[in-house]
Design brief:
62% strand; mainly beta; PPC_dom; eight-stranded antiparallel beta sheet; 146 residues; DNA-binding protein with PD1-like motif
Length: 146
């Protein structure tokens, strides 16, 4: 198994085979950290999955009571229980599309499109470059799970 340790200005990472596990430095924007990592590693497209703790989170989300999208800002510690997204490079610029699920008070969650957030604790992001994406098997009723 090929394992490499990598360091950048805003991040630390481990590369295992063709998959990266990225940890963004505390106080750095998730968008900035991921963008710098992707640019420095010269990854042209892929998928991102991760979780962490963030402050100053800005996102767009659908409000089912008002039946339209809203812009929300959350300034206290936010637990991001899941970030899923993808990215690609076009004309030398990285385009990130990240959907986030937040754990809120009283056991509720909020999901939407992440626009900005600053890392304030634990975080890990798995980056799967194009060509190394996990293979998803179609569901089969006859598949043996034992």
């Amino acid at each position: 198994m090929d394992v490499q340790l990598l360091r950048g200005r805003f991040w630390m990472a481990r590369k295992i085979e063709n998959v990266y596990i990225v940890n963004i430095n505390e106080g750095v924007s998730i968008i900035t950290g991921l963008t710098h990592f992707i640019m420095e590693q010269k990854i042209i497209a892929g998928k991102i999955s991760g979780a962490g703790i963030a402050d100053d989170l800005i996102m767009n989300f659908f409000n089912p009571h008002k039946k339209h999208n809203e812009h929300g800002e959350f300034f206290n510690h936010n637990t991001i229980i899941n970030i899923l997204g993808n990215f690609f490079m076009i004309h030398g610029e990285i385009k990130l599309f990240l959907d986030v699920i937040l754990k809120k008070e009283s056991h509720t969650t909020l999901s939407g499109q992440l626009l900005e957030a600053t890392i304030s604790g634990m975080n890990n992001f798995f980056i799967f470059p194009v060509g190394s994406l996990p293979v998803h098997q179609p569901f089969s009723d006859t598949q043996n799970w034992n």
